[in-house]
Amino acid sequence: MPFGLKIVKQNCEGLVETLGKYSRTVQSGLNIYIPFLQKIRTVSLAMKPLSLKKYSIITEDNAEVSASVTLNYHVTDSAKYQYENTDSVESMSQLVRGHLRDIVGRMDLNEVLGSTAKINQDLAEAIGDLTNTYGINVDRINIDELTPSVAIQEAMDKQLTADRERKAEISKAEGDAQSIQLRTKAQNEALIATANANAKATRIKADAEKYRIDTIQSGLTNADAKYFENQSINAFAELAKSDSNLIVTPLDQADQYGRMASLKKIWDASDSKK
Fold first, then answer.
1. Most CB atoms within 10 A, among 12, 76, 211, 262?
2. How far is the CA of 149 from the CAs of 10, 146, 208, in angstroms?
3. How many C-beta neighbours within 10 Å does residue 213 have?
4. Considering the entire predicted model, what is its pTM?
5. To the nearest whole percent, how much of the chain has pLDDT over 90?
6. Residues of 216-243 as b/e, b for ≥16 C-beta within 10 angstroms?
């Protein structure tokens, strides 16, 4: 047969080569070519995943970070993809690595570890349409992992441990301070309550004493001479019981001396009979 038949699968393109030179592009379906003179090379246009191997990146503060990247791409121009680069996929991978190094190299370690989403966005914008040179478009790119070196991880672990211990000490100190404050407050409140109770008791006692004195004074105001004479007799009676030889008495009651002596004798005689 002077002609050959070639079926190009769905979502693929066929590159017709005549004597080894690209001549035209054919679409999916049944295509005719001249055997021995022509050849149809099939290129898939479907989206493909690609995982880039881990590689080291140095941050702005000279920390070593291991990066792992995955991306999805598809061929947009099968002729460029096949003929203008010996390995378009590897060229695309190198472009991604280079831009990621540039982005991470302008950030310090803490910012890198906490800004994965931002790095993904910046990397996608940086690549943009650059991969069109290879007939490829990057549909999605994602940084799966950013891992510091072992030495940095050990230093970070020590720092985290120190921070936890420091926070624990601060919490303990704050708890002790609060406990002392509450205890001091309770003691002060107890002292105040005791002082208030003592003051109230003193005030009540003073009021009672004042009431007693006022009552006595009020009674003395209305007392007549007989009351005071009775009080004097009671006082002399008490003196008669004592062993004292000296008695001080008002001048107007000097006539009572004899009575006192008589009472003393009567009292002594009564005691001797008993």
1. 12
2. 46, 10, 87
3. 10
4. 0.53
5. 12
6. eeeeeeeeeeeeeeeeeeeebeeebeee
